[in-house]
Amino acid sequence: MTKPIELPDDYYHTNFCALVDFVALRYQSLLSFDEQAFYRAFKAVSLSAQKLYIRLLTRKGDYFRAEKLNYPELEPYCECAAELAGAGLLAINPERSLELKMALLTKVELLQRSGKSELKTLKRAELEAALLAVEGPETDELAQQLGANDTVYQVLLGQHFNTYKLCFFGNLRQDMSDYVLRDLGLLLYEDYPLSQDQLLFQTRAQIERHLQYYVALDQLDEALDSDAAFMLAAVATLPEIDTNDITLTRRVERCLLAVARQLERIESLNEALELYQRCSRHPSRERQARILLKQGHVEPCLALCGAMIKAPVTEEEEVFARDFAFRTARKHLSKAELSAWSVPKRSGPRTETVLLVPRDCSVERLVAEHLAPEGECFYAENSLFNGVFGLYFWEVIFAPIKGAFFNPFQVAPADFSSANFTLSRAAMIQDRMETLSASTLAACVWQQWQAKQGRANPLVHWPELSEPLLTLALARIPIAHWRAVFMRLLNDIPHHRSGFPDLIHFPDEGAYELVEVKAPGDKLQKNQGRWMHYFSQHKIPHRVLHVKYSDETRSDATV
Fold first, then answer.
1. 4, 14, 177, 544 from 7: Cα distances, Å
2. Residue 273's CB: how many other CB atoms inside 10 A?
3. 386 and 315 within one domain
4. pTM for this structure?
5. Which of 83, 372, 383, 411 satisfies CB 3.0 to 4.6 Å to 456 for a cystine?
6. What is the pLDDT of residue 334?
7. 3 state DSSP class of 123
8. Domain limits at 80?
9. Are strands 90-92 and 375-379 parallel, antiparallel or unpaired?
10. Is residue 193 a part of any domain in this protein?
């Protein structure tokens, strides 16, 4: 049994210093005067003071009661706190509002210190509201009682650490826990060069826009449950899209789409349409077409569908536009005008029904066991083809493209979810596709499977990519089929990486078959249907297996 990895006692200090040192060195020219002063102040205090500051800074909130802290190695806190206060990193017993004083107390403490035991039946929020309702001299008395004998620390300059985290991670979603996961061996990252020119941010204005985005994001999360005016006010706080900043553009457009969709749901159609028109990513034009038709603007709707068909952003957009335009034209245009619009016939997949006895397991497992007597069957879904693609194109995915990698904790390059991913690596991709053969695929996959085992890759899910599955898949699936799947993935990885059938079956007599399992009441999803249409075009064996239970009264089977 492998001995668990134990982190050193000062792991958090080591990791914090690694992060701020990394940013201070590489982004020195882009950090503001205050951000550089924050770094110098932190580095100037003693080791113990640094540790206390890190402990408080990385906790939730800015205010802490000293008696509630539990860091025995740093006690007594008073000396470290005084040193941090002298450096401007901490405030000791700062002025606090009544709300802040209440926030630092438990409900029991609130009742005891306020002397309002008669309010104990109230919920926490109700109790706070009752205490805030106190007026006159009693207010000052209550504030004094709630903060009596407490030593409170307020962390200062924490906003500057946000800039360091942003420059390091490229976002404010990740935090110091990434270091812990790596150090414990729970996440292994690929080794890629991190040179000075591999920086996500090239100007101070770019950093400011990303910081502004995260401030706006907090407001947007609250605004989505409000009215149109509040949502639009929150949208106004978003930074302007910079077309040269792919990451910021993707983030802002994702917000615009979310707000626009919510506006659409509450029938604020003009406002939703305006936001959709500011986005270039799918499904902005699809939603615009739907709104235009709903408003009775048939001609603009069809014109937009024509633009989507002529220059689609994604395959999904083109499929939608052809179908939606035809249905719209058939309803609103004359027969002569309708001739300009047609929907290509799309053959449905081969579909069968099987009667099975339900058990306390997934419906996919039931079908796999049903097929097993005829040959091995694996649950593969999105893991097999994506995984083999990820292994074969490993060097392409982790190629040192400028701006792709800028910290040691990236599962994927920064542009992985954008169209720029394939464009900036076109020559490498072409070379891999030109050398693709049964022998080169197998050799590369097995080499990477051994060498990279457990390392993070956006397309490789190691637990589902077993040796028996890979052995049969590489032996049975023709290279023409691998090539066809790879080509569609390369066309639009973000959208095409899902929708693969649940199972892959390897009959004893040879070959293979992809099987999509549908429990009673389930329907084929659109992305699944598009993959199956593509399979039909490339003669990739597949079918849909609808399950019916022999005892329809049983409902304990997992779907």
1. 10, 11, 13, 49
2. 20
3. no
4. 0.83
5. 411
6. 84
7. coil
8. 11-169
9. unpaired
10. no
